[in-house]
Structure formats: C-alpha cells, structure tokens
Amino acid sequence: MSKTIILFALFLSIVLNVQISFVVAESKVYIVYLGEKEHDNPESVTESHHQMLSSLLGSKKAVLDSIVYSYRHGFSGFAAKLTESQAQQISELPEVVQVIPNTLYEMTTTRTWDYLGISPGNSDSLLEKARMGYQVIVGVLDTGVWPESEMFNDKGYGPIPSRWKGGCESGDLFNGSIHCNRKLIGAKYFVDANNAEFGVLNKTENPDYLSPRDINGHGTHVASTIGGSFLPNVSYLGLGRGTARGGAPGVHIAVYKVCWLQRGCSGADVLKAMDEAIHDGCSFISRNRFEGADLCWSISCAGNAGPTAQTISNVAPWVLTVAATTQDRSFPTAITLGNNITILGQAIFAGPELGFVGLTYPEFSGDCEKLSSNPNSAMQGKVVLCFTASRPSNAAITTVRNAGGLGVIIARNPTHLLTPTRNFPYVSVDFELGTDILYYIRSTRSPIVNIQASKTLFGQSVSTKVATFSSRGPNSVSPAILKPDIAAPGVNILAAISPNSSINDGGFAMMSGTSMATPVVSGVVVLLKSLHPDWSPSAIKSAIVTTAWRTDPSGEPIFADGSSRKLADPFDYGGGLINPEKAVKPGLIYDMTTDDYVMYMCSVDYSDISISRVLGKTTVCPNPKPSVLDLNLPSITIPNLRGEVTLTRTVTNVGPVNSVYKVVIDPPTGVNVAVTPTELVFDSTTTKRSFTVRVSTTHKVNTGYYFGSLTWTDNLHNVAIPVSVRTQILQRYYDEN
C-alpha cells in the first residue's frame, strides 16, 4: 500500500471520528471507504462503486440518485445517500473498510474560540458567566486600528465605564469624535521617539497614517481577535467560513498606535503608550510586537525566532509570555498527478481549479530561493516543484509568476505556514510527499498535475503542534524563570484587517505569529478579570498556567515542529495549551505582589539605586540576597543543579473553603523531588500554605534539561506546574579542583 493511500486511510478514519449506529430509516449521506484503488483508470473505479451500490439498490437510476461523490484518485470510496439500514448492509461487505456518517460542521477568529471551548449559548460557560468581558478595558499596543471594521461595532453596548479617563485623538483620516464608540473607546498614536530616532515621518517614503488609523492591519487583527463583535458568515478566500468574533466580544478596547510601517516600534514610544494606558484606566495591556522590562504587568508574544533554543523574547517574570500553536483546522488542497495519485497539500487557494497542466522540477536549481537562476522557458505554462529547508518566502511565487508559470508546489517541513494566493496555487507539502512528486516527474515523459481549490477541515484529525516559528526557551536572560508561560493558537488566525493590506479579503485576513497567539490569551484574561476583578495579575497568570492542557483538547499529544518533530516540553509551550474553562476555577494559585518582584530584582543583582528609582521609594536589598529559585512562580526551573537545592513556594486557596490537597510528583529523569509537607489543609482561617521542594540529582555527568511536574490535587482540581532541571556536575568538579 502506498504512503499516500495510508495517509488517506488515516485521514478518513480519524477526521470523521464518530461512533456509528444504525437506527432510523430516513436517508442521509454516508461515506464508504474502500481503501486502495483496484483500478488505475478513474472511470473504472467509479464503475466499481456503481456496481456495489447497484447490488444494494437494484437499479442504475437508484444508484445515480444515491451517489454524491466517487473518490477515485488517492483512494477508493464514495459518498452516497443511504438509509441507516442500507449503510449497515454495505458496511458488512468484505471489501468495505469503514462506513462513516457524514457530519455537518457549523464553523464559528471563526474556529479558535470553539477549539478552546469558549462558546456562547451555555449559561455555565466562561463566556456567559463573564458577560463576554463586560466593563473590562483592554489596551492594545500595536499598529493602530481600522475603526470602520464591523468587528468594532458597539451594538448592545451600555455606557463607557466611568473609570475611563482616556480619549480618541484625531489625525490622518481619523476623526476622534466620529470613529470611536462605546466599544472602541480609546485611540491614540505615539511617534515622537520614532521621529527623534529616524527623522520626521515622511509619508511618501514610508506610507502610513499620522493618526491611530492602521495601514497594514496587524493591530486591527490583534484587537479584533481579543474583543471583536459577533459577525456572521465570515471567511477568507472562501475558507474558514463561520461567525467571526473575539475572545471577549463585550470588552471595551483602547488602541495605542506605537508601531509604524517600515519603521518599527520605538521602545520609548511603547513605554509612553503603556504609561498612558495605565492612566487612562486600562484593566491590562496587550503588547505584541516588541519586548521590554517594565513593571507594568502585560501579555506579550514569545517572538517568532523558533525553533532555535534560547530565542524567547519578553522574559521578565511579570510578563505573561505566549507561544503559538496550530489549532484543529487545516486547509487540505488536492494535488492530482498524471498517474491518478492524489496527494493532500496545504494551501490558502481559493481556486479556480487549475485543471491538468504541465508539472516541472527545475533540475538546474530546485531550491525555492534560487528559482530565478533557471531559464523562464523551463517554468512557463507549468506548475513548478521546489524544495526549501528555510522559512517560506514569496520569492518562489514572484519568480514563477514572472516566468509565466501557473503555480508552485513547495516541499518543506512543516507545512502549516501558508501564503494566501489568488488564481495562483502555492501549495505546501512535506519533504516526503515532495519526493514522491519528484519521483513521478522523473519517471514520466510529460508529467502533468491538477490542483484543486483548498477546503476547510477541522476536528480531531488535525493534530495540534507548537509552531516552528514560535520562539523557544530556555530563558537566556534569567535561566531560572521559565519562558514561555503558556501557548495558544497563533497559526492561520482569521480576524479583521485594514483594507490597505495586500492580503485583505473583504476586510479580513488569516495571519500567523506569536503576535496572533497573544490576543487569544488576552481575550481569555479579559473574561477571567471580569469574573474575578479582585485577582492580581499573577493570580490570573497562575490560573492560566496551572490549568493548561498538556495534550490537545481531544487528548492527543502536542508536538513541537522544528528541524525534527518531538513531543512539546515546557520550553516549547510553558505550562501547556491554554484551557479557558478550567482557568476559571483553578483551586489554588501562586500569587505575587510587588515585593516579590523586588526580591526577584535583588536576586538577579539589580542595584538598590535602580530598584529605588523604579519604585519611587528607597529600597535596600537584603543580605544575603534572596534566591531567584524562591520566586513564587507557577513553575520550577533549575538551570544548574549541583548536588541538592531546596526552594519554597506558597499557594493561596481560591476554591472551596475547606479543602485538602495532596501532592503528586512526576520527577524529571534522574532527578529526585521531595515536597514537605505532602498534604495542604485549608479552612476559613488558613487560606495560604507554604511548602518546600528539595531537588537532587542522580546523574553523574552534565545533562541537558529534563522535564517533569508537581501537582496539588483535591480530586477536583489538579494544580500542576512544570519542573525543568539541568544537572551540571562537571562544573562543580572544576570549581572544586
């Protein structure tokens, strides 16, 4: 059996993973999967399907009335309208592998929130209990906003919170008295530091709006992902159709434009914007495109420098740093070769179907980044196959288009980073499938290919992975601080965008990056803050980290994409994949105050003068200085274990008043972890309990990091934190000798 057929078999049996029961006599569509084709001629395959149905239905007319599709290229099967008893009969035939009821999916960005379990309509859901973020104000620091987007309409909104002190500034094509409303309650722009660095913004050389208006759409995308209003029947190039909305559709949004097209984001402008946001009354701040070390708690992206280790950005402990994952949605695109083999690639290709055209592999240079070195005649009128080990770029599209080519099949790992194209297919396959296509090209005199328009697929068959681009730990600045903290979907996120964007389709676009994952977490934080207005930032962070999924929502393992695929670990996704509903009731939290952060700064050798200036009051660090390992984080990271170390954590009960928690330890390989006490008892007078963790190693040599976990459980709540340990025995030996 070919690898392609195996893929299709797994695809069908897992994608449509439904339990089959045959009870009712009315007709519905079923998919009949027959496995590998017995005929190379597609017409013969179809005829065999007709014959099978005819034996059941009795006449050619009945067959033609019943059959919906004949699957005849990559595998053999068909879809037909059958009663349940007929489906039962056909499932019992020896040549039938599986019969699967067709499932109608209503997609509702359009998929992200349902994937994470935040759906409207259930009175017990986080979304409904939090009143969709009512009265919470989120400040978004980015490239501005396109206020006309319907995702910022204020239908159903009440008055602006009385604590709001901000406003809307006017400027280029932005009228503050018109373009703001009860949802978009603030809009400001900050460019002075940027001008000071690069000279006054020349809008001819650097097209942009000297106002809060967004020219490239990034900020619009982020803001609408956090809190966009419900908007039905939204798609992108016909894909991902559903109801678009933000994570907290009832939130108030204040936009602070600090990033400028072709000029970036000045740190000074950013700090000024944060300062304004705090003053204006923002509940919290979402900042996506830059890093810094400020004491204002915020939500920030991990960066897009992965999968290389130690590339993580935004590493301060008071920042909630977000990694990016895929979600359970993909865009399969059928590539049918002239030998009738159909391969599924991934693309955002709206069509039309290409039809069978020539297929070529430029033998002079099949490197996607070097296609321009090939003569145009080799690509004209054909689809071009190329290979690349680097991140995708538009160079291949430009080169092939300019040469008169009709499309590109790019072979690389992984395949989830997609470039949207109109009327020009740009399809990604992995190296293995790319090699299969190359073998076909080299084995026939006139290779041809047909590329169909992309489809939308979601469900359990689409595995969740940490995206290749998502920056990885460990933390190179403060190795004992785990980063990232959490992961959220950040690949092919559909949200509003500026009409000026080159990838705009009706005011929407799909974008990928950790700055797409960050607003997903921001949306969740809005809901949690609305439900728990008295929770501190660190309490919210703890609730998110300790309740995260270590698998995907369906229970399947989460992998980390990169040069080689591996199971994800805390340096890929922190505590795991955000689990919003569980974060509502975490049971216990690892809380912190400003004093804890001061102790952290003391532990990493900030001077008394520096800390005093930050706080605005005289501060003296204790002697001996505190250990960074004792910072009350919802994680334990020991970068240089030499013998034995003991650290302390404190948890606060936010669950049932009378609770008893017992510890469960999953130690890293070769590491002993002992917790004292092993049981924590809470009542009306005891809401906080401290415990010590003694960690020692059995390794005799230096190691890389090993990972485990420490969980407190009362059989209702499982409060889990990741444990990451690296042994450095030899360094101790050298120090002692």
UniProtKB/TrEMBL annotation:
Record-linked InterPro entries: Peptidase_S8/S53_dom, Peptidase_S8/S53_dom_sf, Peptidase_S8_His-AS, Peptidase_S8_Ser-AS, Peptidase_S8_subtilisin-rel, Peptidases_S8_3, S8pro/Inhibitor_I9, S8pro/Inhibitor_I9_sf
GO biological process, one term: proteolysis
Signal sequence coordinates: 1-25
Gene3D superfamilies: 2.60.40.2310, 3.50.30.30, Peptidase S8 propeptide/proteinase inhibitor I9, Peptidase S8/S53 domain
Annotated Inhibitor I9 domain residues: 29-107
Assigned keywords, A-Z: Glycoprotein, Hydrolase, Protease, Serine protease, Signal
Domain Subtilisin-like protease fibronectin type-III intervals: 630-725
GO molecular function: serine-type endopeptidase activity
Cytoplasm listed as a keyword: no
Domain Peptidase S8/S53, chain residue ranges per copy: 135-286, 299-553
Residues the record marks as active site: 142 (charge relay system), 218 (charge relay system), 515 (charge relay system)
Pfam families recorded: fn3_6, Inhibitor_I9, Peptidase_S8
Domain of life: Eukaryota
Family to which the UniProt record says this protein belongs: Belongs to the peptidase S8 family.
PANTHER family: PROPROTEIN CONVERTASE SUBTILISIN/KEXIN
Name used for this protein in its record: Subtilase family protein
